[in-house]
Structures are given as C-alpha cells and as structure tokens.
Write a structure and sequence with these properties.
The chain is mainly alpha-helical. The chain has helices at residues 2-9, 14-38, 59-88, 97-112, 121-126, 146-167, 174-194, 202-217, 221-232, 238-255, 260-272, 340-351, 356-391, 403-415, 431-447, and strands spanning 277-284, 306-312, 315-317, 330-337. Strands 1-4-2-3 form a four-stranded antiparallel sheet, covered by helices on one side. The longest helix has 36 residues, at 356-391.
C-alpha cells in the first residue's frame, strides 16, 4: 500500500488508497485460505533472524553500515544508467547480442558460485545467525574466508543486476536489491564486530542495510521502513531502521541520483516515445462529468497534466490539490504531449458527460473525412495540371517533340514570326498542315482550362 502511494503514484488520494488496500486485503485472504487448505502455517518470511534492542552507542555501527550501503546503491544506479547506454549501442544480430551478454555472464557466475544467481530470497535467509548464536549457512567459495566470499558474491550480483537491467532482461529489481543490501549488511557486521560490536546485533545490521540499500536506489524511504517491519513482524528496530534509511536516502540525494524506477521509465520513454510539445488547453466542466464535484487530486488526469488556473463566476482561483471542481469552471491546463488531439480528447472525456466521447469521436471522423476529400481534390487538380503541362511543347527542346508538336510549332512560327526575322518572307504551309495544327491547338485549349 505504501509503495503504491509513495513510488507508483506519488500522491495520496482516497481512490488510490481504496484500490491498493483492497488489492492487498484480497491477496492476504487468498494466501491464508491456500495455506489453510494445504496445512501450512503463516509466519515471517525471514527465517533465522533474531533481533535485539540496540543501545545508543551501537548507532555508530548502524550509521557506518548504512553509509556503505548508500554508497553502493548510488554506484549501482549509475552503473545501470551506463549499462543501458552501452547496451543500446549493440546492434549485432539485430540486437540479440545484448541479451546474450547477461546470459553468458549468468552462466559463468553460476559456475563460480550459485549465490550469484537467482532472485535472492533464499540467500537472505541463509545470512541469518539467530542473533549471533550460530554461523550463517553461506558456504565459502573455493575454501576462501567468508568475508572474501561475501565480497565476491556482492560484486558478481552487482554486475549481473547491472547487465540484466541495462539489456532489458526480465530479472526483477525489488528482491535482488534487498538481497544485495543483506549481503552488504552481513559483510559490514563482521567489520563492526572487529570494531567492538556485540554479535547479538549482527542480524539487526543486516536488516538495516537492506532498508538503506532500498532507500538509496529506489528512493522510497517510507516503503523501506515498512517492509522491514513486515519482514520481521517486529518494531524492535524501528528507530535504527529509520536512521539507516535516512542515511541511505541522504547519500542518494547528495549524489544527485534519480530513483531507479524513474530512470528506467525515462530511458524507455526515450526509445519508444517521439518528442513532445508543451501544450496549453482551455476547457470547462459540464454537469454530469466525472470531474464535477471532485477535488483535483481525486481526478485521474494523465501524467504530467498541470491545472494552472480556474475561472469560476468571473473570479480567478488559485488551484490546489484540494480544490473542488464545479460544473461551469473554466480550466487552463498545461502538459507536455505528443499527440495534441489525443490529449484534448482525454481531457474532454473527464470534464464532459459520457455522451461527449461519442460526439468527439464523430467530430474527429468528420474532420478526417473532410481532410481526405480535400486531399483527393488537390491530387486530382495536380494530376490534371501535370497532364496539361505534359501535353504542351517544351521550349527549346525540339529534339524530343512529336511530329504533330513540330507541325504546330512550325505553324505558330509562320503565323507569328519573331521580331528578329521580320524581313524574312514566311513560307506558306499546306492547307492540311494548317488544319492539323489548328485542330491540335484547339484540343489543347479544351484540355487545359487555363
């Protein structure tokens, strides 16, 4: 629910809240019914994690671990952006080569360690230590120390995630980012133990780094805090999680990074969307429309639509998200659009009654029909002119004239001799040649109205 409000729509409206709340409740009820039918027990999605209340002095370890997670998150977003630019330049095999690269890398990484593949949910559970009471279930790579193994898995997963997202391979983003944050937290907890931290806080540091990593990449801090509470079914780490999330989010803000989902959406829009134009449109609200009686924020406008002014009973109103729209209000809207006519049609469907859609469609069809007729008339006139021009003799190009055209030209020269040859006596033509030339000339006059 929080993710839908904070990241997907970035606004709070009763409509969005009711829809997202209904979807979540339906999913929970369905899950519980299936678990009950299968004899399964509903519980926390994290296994092997035991949380402990952290004293104030332990917050230094939290800040350090969260800062490292935030820096890695910033680097990940920039690597994804760079990978996308490079992948778009690969056109070999009709663009198929860019999908082969992450596929081959996944195979090589899987041969090195299985922890570099998959979404990462089972990997996160393997990092649990029951509050430092046991060692994590993660196995070392080629007998190397656990710290080296963790570092190698982090690097491999960063490269794999970067290649997958850059190439557009469906591989998921949410869970891999969470798993990457858990790996960083597990590595940082070992460093913090060397600095004097109690082992009982190892699992807590792992969860805090998960939230910090999510906040640094997706830039949805409220969602990061809520999902830790939902994962653990506890509020023990609420204050440390808030601190870690703030540090991860601040690192991303200082670096000037955009949210990862927004970055991917912009790159997708650049590839498939033509250039847009800034358009201003004025309309008014009619009685019976879906916008009448609603506040501005509750109306499902297109993305990027901004209501600049509202005129009501001759007075200008400064619109806010809580402004209630009324029938008769004159709106001034602005937006960056690609198809102006389509944008205006969508606006009219909101501010006009339902039957207006049919009227608008009929008007559009009549306009297209008129344009088609006008184009056909223009083409016909052009074809007539071209035909007439083609039938006329070309000046100074006697070599390509037909015999009849040559006769007409000769007749014209004799009937209307040039001024340079006024002293020359014209040569008489035969009567048949004159008649042929005159008939052909009359035919051309009838063919060309001009």
């Amino acid at each position: 629910i929080v993710f839908a409000l904070e990241e997907a729509h970035r606004r709070f409206t009763p409509s969005i809240l009711i829809c997202s709340f209904s979807a979540v409740i339906s999913a929970i009820i369905t899950r519980n019914l299936l678990y009950e039918a299968l004899g399964l027990t509903v519980g926390s999605s994290l296994v092997g994690f035991k949380l402990a209340m952290m004293p104030a002095k332990a917050y230094l370890y939290v800040a350090l671990a969260a800062l490292v997670s935030g820096i890695v998150g910033v680097c990940l977003v920039r690597l994804v952006k760079l990978s996308g630019k490079l992948m778009r330049k690969i056109t070999a095999w009709k663009g198929i080569l860019k999908y082969v690269i992450p596929f081959v890398f996944a195979g090589v990484a899987g041969l090195i360690t299985v922890y570099a593949t998959g979404g990462g949910h089972s990997l996160v559970n393997m990092l649990g230590t029951d509050g430092g009471a046991k060692e994590m279930a993660l196995r070392s790579i080629f007998g190397s120390p656990i710290a080296v193994t963790l570092l190698a898995v982090i690097i491999l997963r960063v490269v794999a995630l970067t290649l997958n997202i850059g190439a557009g391979v469906p591989s998921g983003i949410f869970v891999p980012i969470i798993a990457l944050g858990a790996l960083i937290g597990s590595l940082m907890s070992r460093l913090c133990i060397l600095m004097g931290m109690d082992k009982i806080f190892v699992d807590s540091v792992v969860l805090i780094c998960m939230a910090a990593m999510f906040a640094a990449t997706v830039k949805a801090p409220l969602t990061a805090i809520i999902f830790v509470v939902e994962f653990t079914w506890q509020t023990t780490l609420l204050l440390p999680v808030v601190l870690g999330t703030f540090i991860g989010y601040a690192a991303s803000e200082i670096a000037g990074n955009k949210p990862l989902y927004d970055l991917l959406l912009e790159e997708l829009a650049e590839r498939i969307t033509p250039s847009s134009l800034h358009h201003e449109y004025r309309t008014y609200i009619e009685e019976g429309s879906s916008a009448a009686g609603q506040s501005i924020r509750d109306v499902l406008w297109d993305e990027g639509v901004m209501i600049c002014a509202i005129e009501r009973d001759g007075a200008q109103l400064l619109p806010t998200s809580d402004t209630a729209l009324q029938a008769g209000d004159k709106l001034t809207l602005q937006a960056d659009v690609v198809d102006i006519e389509e944008f205006e049609q969508k606006v009219e469907q909101i501010v006009k009654p339902q039957d207006h859609k049919l009227k608008f469609t009929l008007a559009k069809r009549m306009k297209l029909h008129a344009e088609t007729i006008s184009k056909e008339d223009g083409d016909s006139a052009s074809a007539t002119d071209a035909s007439a021009d083609a039938s006329l003799p070309s000046i100074g190009d006697d070599a390509h004239e037909s015999p009849l055209d040559q006769e007409v030209s000769a007749a014209n020269d004799i009937v209307a001799p040039s001024q340079d040859s006024t002293s020359a006596e014209p040569t008489p033509l035969k009567q048949s040649e004159k008649d042929n030339g005159a008939d052909n000339h009359n035919a051309k006059e009838e063919e060309d109205p001009k």
